[in-house]
Amino acid sequence: MKEAIMCKLEEKNKSCCGSSHLVNQSILLKEHWDKAYLKSPESKLGWYEEDFSNSFRLLDQCELNSSDPVLLVGSGTSRLPDHMLNRGISKLWVLDISEVAIQEVKHRLGEKLNYRVGDILQPETMVDIPQVQLWFDRAVLHFFTKKEDQDKYFIQLKEKVNIGGYVIFAEFSLDGAEKCSGLPVLRYNQTMYQDCLGDEFKLLDSFDHTYYMPSGDPRPYNYSLYQRLA
Q1: Which residue, 92, 96, 169, 99, is CA-closest to 132?
Q2: Global pTM value
Q3: DSSP state, residue 153
Q4: 7 or 195, which is more confident
Q5: Buried b or exposed e, range 29-40, using 16+ CB within 10 angstroms
Q6: Mean pLDDT of 104-116
Q7: Cα(128)–Cα(140) distance, rounded to whole angstroms?
Q8: Phi then psi for 206, rounded to 5 degrees?
Q9: How far apart are CA 36 and CA 130, in angstroms?
Q10: Cα–Cα distance between 32 and 181 in angstroms, integer?
Q11: Gyration radius from the chain CA atoms
């Protein structure tokens, strides 16, 4: 199964990847990320965070009420929702393709959150998730290296973010790594986000930050905050 994942996700030019009989790519991605979360304890994952000051630099600029719906895209096992709950943000949705990750968060936080397992590129994943005042994406968008997948992603985003709502991206920056968890990524800066969002979103803040993995390796990120205009 590992070879099938590598073929499907990273070696698309090989003939086997064109077969209509291969397992759906969403299922392969789910298996990839389930294995990633099963392989290592949370504190050893390459994207594990203890310091959320960069996230809150942007979150604190969002004029959120405690009851405003917030969607954390690709939330994994992150402790960010714990900190947001402590700040009084109570209507949180966490979304990830890995059921292993979501179940771990559910074990930790129980019914304090709303949970959704699924591929964000699939419209059915977003069913019943309400319009949100904040869409927060840490390191999901950069995995969509194909234009058609980027288009699907931004269609979902624009269907869910309220007028006056906010979007936060934290993706690998232009001088960041070319892969994450063995998968290729598309690196970003604030201009590239803006091109995808269009003129209906306004940039409020943007900065680069070098995150250090538990292994000690640096991972340069770009953090950017946008607001949807009326």
Answers
A1: 92
A2: 0.86
A3: H
A4: 195
A5: bbbbbeebbeee
A6: 97
A7: 21
A8: -160, 140
A9: 29
A10: 9
A11: 17
